[in-house]
């Protein structure tokens, strides 16, 4: 029985490695395609005179005067413990940094464009309070991108929901945030302590309606195993 569990673990690791490699290659190739088109070159040609294609994961944080993309004091979805300004941090320079790949430029974040592009797809955050912070930052950026939206935020112990209702010229976006519900997939294959799982999805059902989901799940407080 133990041998079978060990082989299952090895197989799972192999499958995860293949999946991660595939996703990494897809993301890089997708960005390479967009970068080439934005520079007037064909997707099949390498970017730049150096002949080196862009790796969006290799770069550094650079100062950007136009940032941040949202004001923490006006975002209603940010937990107090994540709001440094609220607790008296005097400077704001730490908010003015963006990621700059070594070989190319990333387009500036466009919340409405993200909502349209990610319809029917999912983004998953795996981690602890840092992932909660990232999730809240994403929601705040989307909130800043659709300032005319009417928002409804309902929060309780097991399920929190955020709903964006925007003018008819833009999509209607609904976000659902669930905390503490074990995922059938991860509770089976990755029982680990103090880890939150987030799934983000958007589905365009009509020109005037876009629905989405944000779900956080806490796995069993047990060692990794099967």
Automatic annotation (TrEMBL):
Domain of life: Eukaryota
Presence of keyword Transmembrane helix: yes
Mode of membrane association: Single-pass type II membrane protein
Entry's localization field: Golgi apparatus membrane
Domain spans labelled Trichome birefringence-like N-terminal: 53-105
Short name of any one Pfam family annotated for the protein: PC-Esterase
Gene Ontology cellular-component annotations: Golgi membrane
Keyword Transmembrane helix: yes
GO molecular function: xylan O-acetyltransferase activity
Residues covered by the Trichome birefringence-like C-terminal domain: 106-169
InterPro entries on file: TBL (IPR029962), TBL_C (IPR026057), TBL_N (IPR025846)
First and last residue of the signal peptide: 1-25
Family: Belongs to the PC-esterase family. TBL subfamily.
PANTHER family documented for this protein: PROTEIN TRICHOME BIREFRINGENCE-LIKE 37, PROTEIN TRICHOME BIREFRINGENCE-LIKE 9-RELATED
Principal localisation: Golgi
Protein name, UniProt field: Trichome birefringence-like N-terminal domain-containing protein
Keyword vocabulary terms for this entry: Golgi apparatus, Membrane, Signal, Signal-anchor, Transmembrane, Transmembrane helix
């Amino acid at each position: 029985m133990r041998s079978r569990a060990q082989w299952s673990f090895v197989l799972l690791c192999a499958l995860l490695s293949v999946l991660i490699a595939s996703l990494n290659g897809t993301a890089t190739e997708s960005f390479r395609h967009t970068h080439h088109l934005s520079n007037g070159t064909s997707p099949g040609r390498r970017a730049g005179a150096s002949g080196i294609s862009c790796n969006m994961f290799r770069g550094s944080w650079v100062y950007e005067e136009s940032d941040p993309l949202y004001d923490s004091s006006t975002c209603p979805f940010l937990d107090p413990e994540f709001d440094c300004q609220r607790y008296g941090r005097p400077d704001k320079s730490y908010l003015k940094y963006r990621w700059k790949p070594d070989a190319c430029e990333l387009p500036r974040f466009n919340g409405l464009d993200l909502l349209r592009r990610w319809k029917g797809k999912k983004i998953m955050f795996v981690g602890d309070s840092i992932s909660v912070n990232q999730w809240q930052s994403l929601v705040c950026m989307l909130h800043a991108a659709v300032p005319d939206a009417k928002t409804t935020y309902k929060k309780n112990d097991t399920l929190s929901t955020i709903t964006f209702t925007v003018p008819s010229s833009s999509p209607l976006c609904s976000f659902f945030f669930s905390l503490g519900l074990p995922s059938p997939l991860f509770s089976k294959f990755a029982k680990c302590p103090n880890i939150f799982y987030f799934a983000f999805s958007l589905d365009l059902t009509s020109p005037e309606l876009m629905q989405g989901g944000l779900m956080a799940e806490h796995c069993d407080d047990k060692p990794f195993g099967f």
